[in-house]
């Protein structure tokens, strides 16, 4: 299997074994862009990059949060995250249209209120997903209340609502929060390939 062929070092060599400061790029690869048609192709590109002779380190500043690479490696400790950066900000202005347009991986129903002090997205809706297609219907009863500051993250599906509830940004009974969380989870974490 491919995971057995990936051979990144489990740790950087000891400091005394490092090459002189003038030559660090000679033994590392800096990945600028890496786009593959599917996960298998992505891992094949990594397999190639990690098998280049004399390369001891491969760096990529734009790896996705849910990168499959560490799971494909024989030793996950060879994969190190040195920083996390936001490169996409989203302010939802039309919640019914935005939530109806995104993909869903499970069916269900939950009502929620968006608290927006500016009034752009303030409202209460029932989100209903059937066969992966969503509708947002205005309602007066909400199981969960969502702060508009996290509505973009919730829309993209890259955050667990339990963490937002612990921070006070999502409010409601556990069963309502869990039901909305289950509806909004995405197959993969959101990712922006082009920072702006």
Low-pLDDT residue intervals, each spanning 5 or more residues: 1-20
Range of strand content: 15-25%
What's the end-to-end separation, in Å? 38 Å
The radius of gyration is: 21 Å
- What is the mean pLDDT? 83
| Estimated helix fraction | 25-40%
Structural class based on helices, strands and sheet pairing: alpha/beta
Main sheet: strands, sense, barrel:
5 strands, mixed
Q: How many individual β-strands?
A: 7
- Taking strands numbered 1, 2, ... along the chain, how are they ordered across the largest sheet? 5-4-3-6-7
The shape, in one word, is elongated
* SSE order, one letter for each helix or strand: HEHEHHEEEEHHEH
Number of helices: 7
Protein described:
The strands form 2 sheets. The chain has a 5-stranded mixed sheet with strand order 5-4-3-6-7. It has a two-stranded parallel ribbon with strand order 1-2. It is of the alpha/beta class. The chain has helices at residues 2-5, 39-50, 69-72, 95-101, 151-156, 161-166, 174-184; strands at 28-31, 57-60, 108-115, 123-130, 133-138, 144-147, 170-171. It is elongated and about 65 Å long. The model is unreliable at 1-20 (pLDDT under 50).
């Amino acid at each position: 299997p491919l995971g057995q062929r990936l051979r990144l070092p489990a740790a950087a060599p000891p400091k005394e074994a490092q090459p002189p400061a003038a030559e660090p790029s000679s033994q590392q690869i800096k990945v600028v862009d890496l786009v593959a048609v599917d996960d298998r192709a992505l891992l094949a590109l990594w397999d190639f990059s990690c098998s280049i002779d004399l390369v001891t380190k491969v760096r990529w500043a734009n790896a996705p949060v849910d990168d499959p690479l560490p799971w494909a490696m024989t030793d996950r400790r060879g994969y190190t995250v040195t920083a996390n950066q936001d490169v996409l900000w989203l302010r939802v202005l039309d919640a019914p249209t935005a939530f109806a347009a995104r993909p869903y991986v499970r069916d269900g129903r939950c009502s929620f209120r968006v608290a927006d002090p500016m009034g752009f997205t303030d409202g209460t809706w029932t989100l209903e997903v059937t066969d992966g297609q969503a509708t947002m219907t205005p309602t007066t009863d909400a199981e969960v209340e969502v702060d508009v500051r996290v509505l973009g993250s919730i829309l993209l599906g890259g955050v667990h609502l339990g963490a937002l509830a612990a921070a006070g940004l999502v409010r409601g009974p556990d069963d309502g929060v869990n039901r909305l969380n289950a509806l909004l989870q995405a197959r993969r974490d959101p990712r922006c390939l082009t920072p702006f």
